Amino acid sequence: MAVSRRGLLAGSLLMTASLALGACGGGGGDSTSDEGADAKSLTLWHYEGPTSAMGVAWNKAIEIFKQKHPGVEVKFEEKGFEQIQQNAQMILNSDSAPDILEYNKGNATAGLLSKQGLLTDLSEQATKRGWDSKLSASLQTTAKYDEDGIMGSGKFFGVPNYGEYVMVYYNKAMFDKYKIAVPATLDEFTAAMDTFVKNKVTPLAVGGAEYPAQQIFYELALSKADRAFVDDYQLYKHKVDFNGPVLSYGAQTFADWVQKGYIAKNSASIKAEDMGTSWEQGKFPILISGSWWYGRFAKEIKNFEWGTFLFPGNNLHPGSSGNLWVVPEKSKAKSLAYDFIDITMSPEVQNLLGNSGGVPVAADPSAITDPKNKELIENFNKISTSDGLAFYPDWPAPGYYDVLVAGVQGLINGSKTPQAFRDEIAKPYNENLADLGK
Amino acid sequence: MTDRTERRRAAPMSDLAGEGQEGMTTETQDPMTLTATRAPQRRTAEKPALRERNPGRFLILTILLVLLLLIVAPLLVVAVNAVKSPADYAANGPLSLPGKLHWQGIVDFWNRVDFGLKLWNSFITSLAVAVLGVILSVLNAYALGIGRVRGRLWFLVFFLIANLLPQEVLVYPLYYLSKQFGLYDSLFSIIIIFTVIQSAFGTYLLTSVYTEFPKELLEAAAIDGAGKWRALWRVVVPVSRPTLAVLFTFFFIWTWNEFFLPLIFLISNDNQTVPVALGVLQGDRMMDATTTSASALIGIIPAMVFFLIFQRTLTRGIAAGAIK
């Protein structure tokens, strides 16, 4: 009896708490452009390491900001990703909120906070300062959210400084050893992998226990997809047929790749980190993953030459804008925060981001000195300007990441047929659609 | 009384070897006759014979060694990677020995998060919680265990349930309370919260210890004219000091290792504790293995040092000093 009473008490407390939270969120919205222009300090948070491309570029941006605003003190704090992810809602609802911070893009993060009224609408600033013309359409998708907090349309609630995309990393030494040229089509790519298999080398380093495997599946599906499919799948424009040609091809081809030995059966339990280090050690010739590895590979690989190419034959690639600069509704220095965002979008900071191994959204490729970084950025610009960013497969529904991990693991260890896999991932997707009332 | 305490003080020093095995078992068997069974002669007579005759000892020793290795292995991996350069890690993986010692990872991390300050924050909170938690537990347990207030069983059930409650449930109520009192983003909120959480366990445990408290002692004190307050500080607390020391140590280490609530309540970097500071390294998709190891190593060392200092208290066991 005591148990239930206690449980009831906790439950009711929780309920009042969440009600109160909802109530607190509603207000705000009176953002004029010179609000907080006379503030004497700017509290700024982000969670990128000091040696990462973003960390380097943003340090520079802080320096420039200080020069332009001599009387203003910049209070920068490096945060943990986990802390922001867990607590943003509570922090932004309190007086401890920073004036500007880096936050995750997506419906469940920036979208949710914008819906609760915790973020400042940046649309006016975006047009006035020309951020909207610097960001391509597929980059803007993750910066805009509608009243329901769903990305793709509505108002600007964040500004991305960098992008990311999935590509193919290859070990030049191993390609040379078996006299394989860089493939230009999917057929050449599979032929190259056949050569490796014939020589008893498993071609692909895959982390089946985390995000990498599902991104390969998505990449394969995208080879048969067009923009309309991506809009349907990610933005719920129309219903997605999980038995249609796109996803059928993706699932079937992924299963074939396992069958043909391109993907090792034991990779179902490999984590992304282990996938990366095994490729760094030269145990596999090819790795299909995101640009977030780029800086690290450049720094750490000393034993062999390597290069990258876009997944052959695809017009659409998994990828998106990076995380966003957002301005909390409770920010006490909004005008300064806008100035700071403007500085991060300036050619100087964008080019530095590119030269440090990142993928800037608005850099001038001719200002990038390192040929490898240049290639990375040119590839991104190619995708971005041709509207080729297809986002990530786990975005459409909450908790979908785990569904996809489990599903693709089933394909890798052969416990599921492609048909069973499609049925399994269709169910939570459609349930989420029903929840959204679409 | 004086005779007993003297003997207790002398005993641990003379039996460094046998403390763990025999001391413990006899104590749990029959605490009331503890001083009698602990006679040193008997032990010295038995020990050598046991050692020679029992071949099972080797088996047990091997098993213990394997277990020890299993327990120490993760720590060793952490230590090895903490002093490895990132390039070395990338080339040879996590299990290889470092080519040369690379201390830069530790130094960089220390400066990056201002680790000295984090250590100080952790130390202050843990110490405050340990002291306050023990005091609160003693007061509660005195009322419930010795004072025998009405409905104490329900009090105990309540404390037990409070112990079992996951911290996630507490987050929102505590968040609003602390905001209301202006304690959000302040070490005081953490000290208050953990004093209560830890003393819930302390109360539960101490109460069961105090229920068995020898009445004669209390009666003797009452006859000598001691009031309730005096009996608590002059009789109950000194007699149960070993148990209190164990509680103190546990409270300290537990609070030191807390991650979830400090993560939520300590927002500014200046207020953060060690485990929260370690979280800085966890990225969205990237994991910096060598720096993470370096941070884990310097994060765990203080707790280990504290444990080593107080391990004598711990080996005496929670119930050991209860009834002497």
TrEMBL record, chain A:
Q: InterPro entries, per this entry? A: Bact_solute-bd_prot1, SBP, TAT_signal
Pfam families from the UniProt entry? SBP_bac_1
Q: Which UniProt keywords apply?
A: Signal
Question: Secretion signal: which residues?
Answer: 1-22
* Cited PANTHER family: ARABINOSE-BINDING PROTEIN-RELATED, BLR3389 PROTEIN
Q: What is this protein called?
A: Raffinose/stachyose/melibiose transport system substrate-binding protein
> Whose protein is this, by species?
Actinoplanes regularis
TrEMBL record, chain B:
Q: Which GO terms describe its biological process?
A: transmembrane transport
Pfam families for this protein: BPD_transp_1 (PF00528)
Mode of membrane association: Multi-pass membrane protein
Q: Where in the cell is it found?
A: Cell membrane
Kindly indicate whether the keyword Transport belongs to this entry.
yes
Q: What protein am I looking at?
A: Raffinose/stachyose/melibiose transport system permease protein
Question: What InterPro entries has UniProt attached to this entry?
Answer: MetI-like, MetI-like_sf
The membrane spanning regions, by residue number, are: 58-80, 119-141, 153-175, 187-210, 231-256, 292-310
Q: What spans are recorded as compositionally biased (Polar residues)?
A: 23-38
State where it is primarily located.
membrane
Q: Where is this region: Disordered?
A: 1-48
Locate the coiled-coil region(s) and give their ranges.
none
Q: Name one GO cellular component term.
A: plasma membrane
UniProt keyword list: Cell membrane, Membrane, Transmembrane, Transmembrane helix, Transport
What the record says about family reads: Belongs to the binding-protein-dependent transport system permease family.
| Domain ABC transmembrane type-1 as annotated: residue spans | 119-310
- Source species: Actinoplanes regularis
